[in-house]
Design brief:
By secondary structure, the protein is α+β, with helices and mostly antiparallel strands. Helix content is about 25%, strand content about 30%. The chain is elongated, with a radius of gyration of 31 Å.
Length: about 650
């Protein structure tokens, strides 16, 4: 089974199940009025349809209906196959034939209305569609499967909604990403890093070294493309490669904001919990780790797919057909707590419905959820929606509008960290293949409520300038909450994270055997992105640690509360290296008298020492000394220079 998009759902594609169940129509003898020859050929068509050989099945059915023009089951199977191939003129034609058959059964009449309704919906002829669906609701009662009746009821109610959406189109202006990303095959399920420079996606393009999957008929792999920073153009896509890509199909993947974690949907694997499961892989240096099944904490004996990880890595959203939901496929989430994923929770209404919800995508703010549904009021088929998390729960989903949504299936979308650009997979006449990835600018009503920016950094050994794997923590200075925590890449030293604007942040980097780094970002008035180099000094005698997030009120030595974030990092460093003795040094700028500056710097250094004493660091390891303005590191004639000179430092003076 392919993992890429929706599973064969009852409400979304009931006819797939109907085709596979068509073998149940086999009888010991041909139906009345059907020759043995026609019946035998019909059974051949059923078998071909069962094995997804649609073109062959349709060719056989043409012969069958020529031999037996009133053979209802053959016409119905033909309509189902055309519908699965989105061949709308043929679907309409079958519907009209079924309506005009001599001595037709009630079931044939209902199927004819069904095909006509689907065709009118696909053509966006919603007035005609509404009239047909109204007749269908009466004609199908007691003669068609309940799932098909339910779909007709949904499409009837959606016909008026679709007409309204068309009367108020949204400013959707998609741009095809071109041949560097798209191919003559299908591309979908885009996933983007926080800086918008790396795009991951699923593709069914042929692989010269491998044959298509024997059941699905395609080879589904993960690819990625890098955006050229100078030109803004996407570079030729490359396969993700082993061990994630394999001779089997891989799809429905989500990559973390830094591009270092991958959550991948794999199906029918020996270690699987169900038909399709979620797996985890990490970029270790320059190579991905073998995908690891997330286990029964996340996966079920049913279909689990379409992962989306929040930017703080604390919540994993996904789609699942497991019991306990409201419909065929629901959206669920799991919290990361105490070092493991917790039992999944159903999002419930108003997100989930009696229909199917797929493809969740949580924005950088953690409060804006994009997803696909075939039940919420829309254009027919799968539509894309957005919901916002408020103090009282998720808001009523908003349809992203026409012409983004159409009667076709739109169900794979991602949004950049700033909440400005969306990437969506669409079937469009101007596409390079069957389905392409497009980018578009989001209009205000569907953007995340909280804007975000990003920080990209490179951690290096300060002496050798070689990359380091370091633990990166980003803290809201005001609330002291840790908003992001991750490791830099061991091979490149790179880290990448998003952060909401309108706040002040402290950034800390630590690695065993090194002094930690501290920096801060003020995004209260700005949403600028930051690219920084983080140099970690080896821990040795004479090493000096500059504390950049220690704050005092003007002309005072009282530590402000936001200083505790960095002071706790000092505590952890000293606890991890219990033999070291340090001198806490206070420094000022040159404003004021020399005596005043010495006295103020001494009091501030002592304030830091007292904090460390209260946190359990032995007094024998700590000394404090104020140096006033005697050791400047910048020009005191400018405000920027004076700000650098006002600092607190930790000098490692020796071991016991």
């Amino acid at each position: 089974m392919a993992a890429q998009r929706a599973s064969a759902s009852v409400l979304g594609y009931p006819l797939i199940l109907g085709i596979l169940g068509a073998l149940g129509w086999a009888q010991p003898h041909p139906p009345k009025g059907v020759s043995k020859q026609a019946y035998g050929r019909y059974l051949e068509a059923v078998r071909a349809a069962h094995f997804q050989q649609e073109a062959q099945a349709l060719s056989i059915l043409e012969e069958v209906v020529r031999l037996a023009p009133n053979y209802e089951e053959a016409w119905v199977l033909k309509g189902k196959l055309h519908l699965r191939r989105s061949e709308w003129p043929a679907v309409k034609s079958v519907g009209q034939v079924l309506q005009n058959l001599r001595h037709r059964s009630r079931a044939a009449e209902a199927w004819g209305l069904y095909f006509l309704g689907k065709a009118y919906t696909a053509e966006m002829a919603y007035d005609s569609a509404r009239k047909v669906w109204e007749k269908f609701l009466t004609a199908s009662m007691g003669v068609l499967p309940r799932a098909v009746q339910d779909e007709g009821a949904v499409l009837y109610s959606q016909a008026e909604n679709a007409a309204q959406l068309m009367r108020s189109p949204v400013p959707f202006a998609p741009r095809n990403l071109g041949p560097a990303v798209n191919s003559a095959a299908e591309e979908y399920l885009p996933s983007l890093t926080a800086d918008g420079q790396r795009l991951f996606f699923t593709s069914r393009r042929p692989t010269p070294s491998r044959s298509p999957h024997p059941m699905s008929g395609w080879d589904e792999d993960l690819y990625w493309s890098m955006r050229d920073s100078a030109t803004g153009q996407w570079q030729p896509a490359q396969p993700l490669g082993p061990p994630i890509n394999s001779p089997q199909n891989e799809g429905a993947a989500f990559f973390s904001a830094d591009g270092q974690w991958a959550f991948v949907t794999l199906c029918d694997r020996p270690d699987g919990q169900g038909s399709c499961d979620l797996y985890f892989s990490e970029l270790q240096g320059l190579r991905w780790s073998p995908p690891r099944n997330l286990g029964p904490e996340i996966n079920s004996p049913f279909w689990d797919s379409h992962p989306s990880l929040s930017h703080d890595r604390k919540r994993l959203y996904f789609a699942s057909s497991r019991p306990g939901g409201l419909g065929g496929s629901d959206l669920w989430y799991s919290e990361w707590q105490n070092g493991k994923w917790q039992k999944p929770v159903n999002l419930g209404p108003p997100i989930n419905t009696p229909g199917d919800e797929y493809s969740p995508m949580i924005a950088a703010d953690g409060r804006t959820l994009y997803f696909a549904s075939n039940y919420h009021p829309g254009m027919g088929g799968q539509d894309l929606f957005v919901s916002f998390l408020t103090d009282t729960g998720w808001s009523t989903p908003r349809n992203l509008g026409y012409p983004l949504n159409t009667p076709a299936d739109e169900q794979t979308l991602c949004v950049d960290a700033r909440g400005e650009i969306g990437y969506v997979a669409l079937v469009r006449p101007d596409g390079l293949g069957k389905e392409d990835i497009y980018e578009f600018r989001l209009w205000p009503e569907i953007r995340p409520k909280e804007r975000a920016s990003y920080v990209r950094g490179y951690v290096k050994d300060a002496q050798r300038r070689t990359p380091l794997r370091a633990y990166i923590v980003l803290v809201d200075v005001a609330t002291k909450d840790t908003l992001r925590a991750l490791y830099s890449n061991a091979a490149t030293g790179e880290f990448l994270l998003s952060l909401p604007v309108g706040r002040r942040y402290g950034l800390f980097a630590s690695a065993a055997g090194y002094l930690f780094y501290s920096g801060h970002f003020d995004l209260v008035q700005s949403d600028s992105a930051f690219v920084i180099e983080v140099l970690l000094e080896p821990l040795r005698k004479g090493s000096r640690l500059t504390l950049r997030n220690i704050f005092f009120d003007f002309a005072k030595a009282d530590l402000r509360p936001e200083s505790e974030v960095e002071l706790e990092e000092v505590v952890r460093l000293l606890q991890a290296n219990p033999s070291w003795r340090v001198e806490i040094q206070g420094h000022t700028d040159s404003l004021g008298s020399a005596a005043y500056n010495l006295e103020l710097s001494q009091r501030r250094a002592e304030a830091v020492r007292q904090y460390l004493l209260r946190r359990g660091i032995a007094a024998t390891r700590l000394s404090a000394k104020g140096y006033g303005a005697t050791r400047p590191i910048a020009d005191n004639s400018t405000e920027a220079g004076r700000a650098l000179n006002r600092r607190t430092e930790i000098l490692f003076i020796g071991t016991d």
